[in-house]
Amino acid sequence: HYSIQKGAAFLGIGIDNIYLVGVDERGKMIPEELEKEIERAKAEGAVPFFVSATCGTTVLGTFDPLQGIADVCQRHGIWLHVDAAWGGSALLSRKHRHLLAGIEADSVAWNPHKMLTVGLQCSAFLLRDSSGLLQRCHGASAAYLFQPDKFYDVSYDTGDKTIQCGRRVDCLKLWLLWKAVGTEGLERRVDRAFAFTRYLAEEVKRREGFQLVLEPEFINLCFWFVPPSLRGKEGSADYWSRLHKVAPAIKERMMRTGSMMVGYQPHGARVNFFRQIVTNPAVTRADLDFFLDEIERLGRDL
Amino acid sequence: HYSIQKGAAFLGIGIDNIYLVGVDERGKMIPEELEKEIERAKAEGAVPFFVSATCGTTVLGTFDPLQGIADVCQRHGIWLHVDAAWGGSALLSRKHRHLLAGIEADSVAWNPHKMLTVGLQCSAFLLRDSSGLLQRCHGASAAYLFQPDKFYDVSYDTGDKTIQCGRRVDCLKLWLLWKAVGTEGLERRVDRAFAFTRYLAEEVKRREGFQLVLEPEFINLCFWFVPPSLRGKEGSADYWSRLHKVAPAIKERMMRTGSMMVGYQPHGARVNFFRQIVTNPAVTRADLDFFLDEIERLGRDL
Which residues does the record list as N6-(pyridoxal phosphate)lysine (modified residue) (chains A, B) (predicted)? Predict the structure, then answer.
């Protein structure tokens, strides 16, 4: 994820000190490749200290094999961080939480504002450490802000643990949602999002001109729409360059019409494709059908 | 400000590489002291590159003498940053903007969520540079998030310039307020806050048992409440240690009563004092009188 690059630059670590680990064709980190990179780094005189695994990549919605990665990290004494910003909410579903097996890492990032539709922004940073690491790292003990002589337990004053000073109480939104719909209500949201994706995936396979980029593992539905003019021409020289232009053209039309908004992007060697994600619990099957019908209607003459 | 310490730790610069500059009795940076520190740093083999001046310190509301500081920075080719998070809003008042004379710095931070009461959080970072510095520093050009092949001008996509990825559109709140009350409406808010402070300062001087910590330069009203049992005993050995406990005790009472919330803190050699700041445009003179009366009532028997 590009945040690793930004973080390394920002923290003074330097992007040259990031080692990229090989992945399989779905984008899953290969534990053997991780171990190879760690050994290569050590041989180069570097001190590897941090591995970032991902649960739910941005585009394809891929989950890294956490248990294999954790074994490697443990062997080398390296901090394992899991970026579960996107996929972490699957833990709320008894049916789907297996995707995150092995998430007992040193640190985990999770964004309830993504899949659970808590209002932006609501980010949780979970630490295995219980020795006050954040206080030691970020605490500046500015007594003019965090008075130690209050009449209540000042351990509830968490401000000094954070990086920012003035900031909103973002956790309250999650707490209110949780109180309002309950653990089972959240689970239903998660399960429903998986079911929507399954439904759309089957429709995409059934409909002419629609093509899955890959079978969804999570709730990212990645697909191409192939307009009639390109169907059956996979063998022609300009097929992929022409297909690359289809999603942006349809996106422009949907935005000008005002009927929908849906993201598209290229990914590695794959040309532009749509990425649909449905988390809104108010969405109905009819909306999902409209979504595919509308792409068909807008892209028919391309 | 303690954010400099946090920032230096966080960015990998290291807090040992911060040089503190001497201030006068109000906490204003002394330009001659700045120049001395720069020369000391250079003599020690360091490369000074960044000076942070403050317009509106947290507790006392002090403004650094920007013009003198800018001259020193220019002579040494050092980036001048002005932390106007708190005091920057004074620029909206024709009567009070002189406090910020010389703010034409390399960078300025300003929080409209502070004095203008825009909802938290709303932070502006203003740069003199117009060459795309933020894009070059923070841009990761992740094409799967910031597609270059959109049908509209992608220079409006500012996401890649920022540190965070998912985040709220905080500027909209300021824009809406500005549209709603206008430049003159904002100016009235600023002027009113100064007038409230002036009123309270005069009342504090007039009332027995109240004592200004210093004449307010901005809208921070810093004062002690001296309960009857301590009045006239400034010479006694335990006067200051007893006064130190007064503000926390009154704060506890006001919180338990539920009548008010007001901050207190020690500052340098000064024992705990109240810091009152009134920015809410709905506050009336009667509220200000109640504020002082209530402190008197709650602290009378201490």
Answer: 114
